[in-house]
Design brief:
heterodimer, A: Rna Polymerase Sigma Factor, Chain: A, elongated, binds zinc ion
């Protein structure tokens, strides 16, 4: 899905018709929207909460909220952006409720300089796909993103995993564009730094 | 351009949004500074590796169960 769209085009997104029908009580139209976005909503929730059961609950709750509030959806933004915004809020709320979790706020962890200044300047050669099998690579990627502060993880997920534009990410999170850019930079640099531990070129030949 | 200045442009650079006058400076810095060249390359790889790998599974069984639960919750709501 292209992130860039011209504001001049009057092209109507196919979701608009589905939403209009769903608002009138057409369950089949709503079910079509659920089919289209359940995978994405689950993925976003799992990225943010890092917990599969939470992600399942959040996916259900997000669609229920969307269904109940459908009349409030004005169509100023894309339906998917609106839906993701609901799921993100539910996910952050769930993190806050977890007793073990630290403070979860989109504003809080911007102070963390930790890991945002590059220290590892090793090249990744050969590339990670050649170094690791799919299964092991998946473990590394999950472990690494799990270590990010939730606020950074959320911005990275929308912008780089879901391919939202910076503006869409800002809208979904209720942040300014510069705030999204700053968090995105830190998130990317922290992930890069952590992944470097696994992917850095090993001196002395191939990995045993 | 310092390495810190370079990092500040990194996000815009990936988006192709660096101002034309600055772009030449950014490109010169990457050519001359090996550290920033590596940071640029490995950050690009970081983004693409997360973009290309579906790191959480969504098996058909889970999808069907979740879908049924969503529809039950919603249609029972009105
Ligand atoms: Zn430099």
């Amino acid at each position: 899905m292209p992130a860039i769209q011209s504001p001049a085009t009057e092209e109507i997104h196919p979701d608009v018709a589905l939403v209009a029908r769903a608002k009138k009580g057409d369950t089949a139209a709503f079910e079509q929207l659920v089919r289209q976005y359940e995978r994405q909503i689950f993925r976003v929730a799992q990225h943010i909460t890092q917990n599969r059961e939470d992600a399942e609950d959040i996916t259900q709750d997000a669609f229920l909220k969307a269904y109940e509030k459908l009349d409030q959806f004005q169509g100023n933004s894309k339906f998917s952006t609106w839906l993701v915004r609901i799921a993100v809020n539910e996910s952050l709320m769930r993190l806050r409720k977890r007793k073990t979790s630290k403070i979860v706020s989109m504003d809080q962890d911007v102070q963390t300089e930790d890991g945002s200044i590059p220290r590892d300047f090793a090249e990744w050669r050969p590339n990670p796909e050649q170094l690791y099998g799919q299964h092991e690579l998946g473990d590394i990627l999950r472990k690494t993103i799990q270590g990010l502060p939730p606020g950074f993880r959320t911005v990275f997920t929308l912008r780089d995993v879901e391919n939202f534009s910076t503006e869409e990410t800002a809208e979904a999170l209720g942040l300014s564009v510069p705030a999204v850019k700053s968090r995105l930079l830190r998130a990317r640099l922290q992930l890069r730094e952590r992944l470097s531990r696994y992917f850095r070129q090993k001196s002395g030949g191939p990995i045993p | 351009m310092t390495c810190t200045d370079f990092l500040k442009q990194l996000t815009d650079y990936f988006d192709g949004q660096v101002e034309p006058e600055l772009l030449a400076e950014v490109q010169t810095h990457v050519r001359e500074c090996h550290h920033c060249e590596v940071v640029l390359d490995t950050t690009r790889q970081t983004i693409s590796i997360y973009r290309e790998h579906e790191i959480y599974e969504f098996p058909a069984e889970l999808r069907e169960r979740l879908h049924a639960a969503i529809m039950k919750k919603c249609t029972g709501a009105r």
